[in-house]
Design goal:
Elements lengths: L1 H5 L4 H17 L5 H8 L3 H29 L1 H21 L3 H15 L1 H13 L2 H15 L2 H16 L1 H22 L14 H12 L2 H22 L1 H8 L8 H21 L5 H25 L9 H24 L4 H27 L3 H25 L24
Length: 418
């Protein structure tokens, strides 16, 4: 543990590995969809539920990981969650029916988000200012590769050892993280700073956050924007195998442009911070999303689906999404400055809830055709833009310097209130 205290760079790979569990659980088994459908006798629409149920459980439990770590300590919550996640992943590998697979996918969702949520708290516990920002950036950079490499690794493992081996690999990776955490992860939240875990005051705080109109407009605008990208991510097996007619080892043709666009948007957002105002950054983001959506529609109408032309507009949409996302997040957190942790948890739940609906309802309806995917993605982008315009109209003093202005915050009970 002293090595981590002396050199925070060593902490980044461990926390990033914990955060990677979630994306790997989603993306690594995309190449195996057809194999699982054939072995367990289910339809592609049914397979989508293995994703949507995982996301729903992930979203619901994200409300509790942080408060549990506040009450019982960061290290214990992470260790127990990863152990239980590894057990649930082994259950997926041993599943003899689709119903059994779905049950263990739900359990994966329940325990898979602890590393992401509590890991951020660990960074904030131990570091301030530039050190905290630097370590968070290192974790985010490593974590950014997970969605791109997960389906590639899944495709190779599928070809070499079958779909069950994908889950065994993920379980083994998680257990390695557990061993590393036992040896080196410090407890950053000592007993004297812990708060009592009480559901009633916590529920009051969440209710206050979730009933704020401006907060909800921002939250759903951001979530719908991401839904424009997640439409393609959740439909990846159909896009890669049926529309682009690629093999199970060629998922990188879809995921590399998406992740590349999203990482470029994040880098551009960081570079533009302080140079142009926040509202203009959101405007540029929506312009990029609109151009990508228009190219998507035009390509679906006039071109035969092929790489790279089919996937490049999707990367442009991803760039616009991540360029505007930081402003949405900061505005949401500023609505509840006294309970920013709860505000962040509700934001995560909104985003994951929308993603679950997109993957479980929308994507199965449109994934059979390029035009259906393009129309769904465009509709989500337009919906996000309309919510943003409503927010601007009802928010007083929402000028170019909105992130520096002292706007009137919403009120909320704190989790420790009675």
């Amino acid at each position: 543990m002293n090595r981590f205290r002396a050199n925070p760079k060593l902490l980044a790979p461990l926390l990033a590995g914990m955060a990677m569990i979630g994306p790997f659980s989603i993306d690594a088994f995309f190449p195996a969809f057809h194999a699982i459908e054939a072995e367990l006798g289910v339809t592609p629409a049914a397979m989508q539920q293995s994703l949507s149920l995982y996301l729903a459980a992930y979203a619901a439990m994200s409300l509790l990981h942080g408060p549990l770590s506040d009450a019982y300590g960061r290290r214990g919550v992470i260790l127990w969650s990863m152990l239980l996640f590894a057990a649930a992943t082994a259950g997926c590998a041993l599943a003899t029916s689709f119903e059994m697979l779905l049950c263990f996918r739900v359990l994966q969702g329940v325990f898979g988000g602890a590393g992401m949520v509590v890991g951020r708290a660990i960074i904030r516990d131990r570091f301030d200012g530039a050190d905290a920002q630097r370590l968070m950036s290192q974790v985010s950079f490593i974590f950014g590769f997970a969605p791109a490499i997960a389906p590639i690794i899944g495709g190779f493992v599928l070809g070499a050892a079958g779909w069950r081996a994908i889950f065994w690999l993920l379980a083994g990776f998680t257990l390695l993280l557990v061993l590393a955490s036992l040896a080196a992860l410090p407890e950053t939240h000592p007993r004297e700073r812990r708060t009592r875990f009480a559901l009633r005051p916590l529920a009051r705080t969440y209710r206050a956050v979730a009933s704020d109109r401006r907060y909800l407009l921002l939250g759903f605008a951001a979530a719908l924007n991401f839904g424009a990208i997640f439409t393609y991510i959740s439909a990846a097996p159909s896009v890669v195998l049926n529309i682009l007619h690629l093999s199970a080892t060629e998922f990188a043709w879809l995921f590399v442009p998406i992740i590349g666009g999203m990482m470029s948007g994040s880098a551009l957002s960081s570079r533009l911070a302080g140079k142009i105002d926040a509202l203009r950054t959101v405007t540029i983001g929506f312009i990029l999303m609109s151009i990508g959506a228009a190219l998507n529609l035009a390509g679906s109408l006039w071109l035969t689906p092929s790489v790279p032309w089919f996937v490049l507009p999707i990367g442009l949409i991803g760039m616009g999404v991540t360029l505007s996302f930081p402003t949405f997040t900061l505005l949401m957190l500023d609505r509840f400055p006294a309970v920013r942790g709860a505000a962040a948890s509700v934001q995560a739940t909104i985003s994951l809830g929308v993603a679950a609906v997109v993957s479980g309802v929308l994507s199965p309806l449109v994934s059979a055709s390029p035009m259906g995917l393009a129309c769904a993605s465009t509709g989500l982008t337009i919906s996000g833009y309309l919510l943003w315009r409503i927010y601007l109209r009802i928010t007083p003093n929402c000028g170019p310097d909105v992130l520096s202005a002292r706007l009137e915050p919403a009120s909320a009970a704190t989790p420790s209130s009675t």
